[in-house]
Write a structure and sequence with these properties.
alpha/beta, Rossmann fold, seven-stranded mixed β-sheet, four-stranded antiparallel β-sheet, 9 helices, 11 strands, binds zinc ion
Amino acid sequence: MNDWLRNRLVCPRDAGKLENRRDGLVCREKHFYPVIEDIPVMLVEEALETHHHTSETFRQVADQKRGKKIKTEVTRKNEVDEYVQTEIPHTSGTLYFSLRHKLTRYPIPELRLPPGNGKTFLDIGCNWGRWSIAAARKGYRPVGIDPSLDACLAARRVSIQLSLQAEFVVADARFLPFAADSFDAAFSCLVLQCFSKPNVHLTLDEIRRAIKKDGTIFLQMPNKYGARALYQQWRRGFTEGEKFEVRYWTPQELRQTFEEKFGATVMTSDCFFGLGIQASDLDLLPFKYKLVVLASEFCRKLSQVFKPLILVSDSLYLEAENQNKS
Ligand SMILES: [Zn+2]
C-alpha cells in the first residue's frame, strides 16, 4: 500500500486514526482491519450488507487466516483475467452474457469527464476496476472500493497487468474509510442503482464528506421513466425491489436529492434502452446488441440537443460540484 493511501485511511466506524499492526490496521477503539496482499479490508461487520459479496469477504479473510492461498499471479499479456471472464455480465450488464469466457480484450468504458491531470478519483463499487482503469488512462489517480475481496484482488492484478497505477480497498460505500476531503472526484456506475434509497442517502452523505469542496461528483442512476425501465418494473409488478435489484428513481427525485446533498446538479443521459450500454464495447458485442448500442448512442447524442429526451433515458448521469459541505 502506498503512503498516499495509507495516510488517508481512517476507521470506517469512528473516523479515528489507524496504527499499523503486523497483519493489519487498528484504531484507538481497537477496531481491527486486516490487510491482505496489500489490500486493506475496511468493512463494518455489524452493518447490514448491501451485497452478499460482503459476507464472502469475511469468509475469505477467515480462510486466509487459516493459511489458504490467494491467487496473485498476474495474467499474461494480451490475455483476459479469468475473474473478469467469469464476472463480466455481473459488472457490465446483461448485454454481456454471451461474452462470458470469450472476452478478447478488457472492456474499458469511456469516462465522460475531462482529463484528470493527476486529480484523485474515488471509484465506488469498482469490482474488477474497469472505471478505475478508464480513469487512470485519462490521467486521474484512482482508488477503487468494493465489498468483494476477490474483485479488489482481480482489479489489482489487472491494473498491474496493464501497467497502470491504481489502488484498491475493500470497503462499504456507506462507511468510507477515508479522511474528510481525501479526493478530487467521486464516480460510480451501475452500483448505487442497486442500493435501497436510504442506503443511497447514506452513501451520498459519505461522498460529500470524503470529496473536497468544489470537487467533482459524477454518478450514474437509473430513470423510472426509461423505456426498458418501465418494462422491467412491469415484470416485477412495480414493486420497490429488494436485495441488489435495481431501484428506480424519477428524474425529479434524483435532482432534488443531489441538489440537497451537493448543490446545483446537471443531469445528462448515460444510455437508452437498458443499463450499462457502452459504445466503446461495440466491437465485442453480438450483432443484435450492436443495434441496441447504436440506437442508444443516437438517442443520447440527440438528447444533448433536444434536452427533454433526457427524461426518458434509461440511465442518467448526475454531475455536481461539492458545494454543500458543512
Ligand atoms: Zn475505530
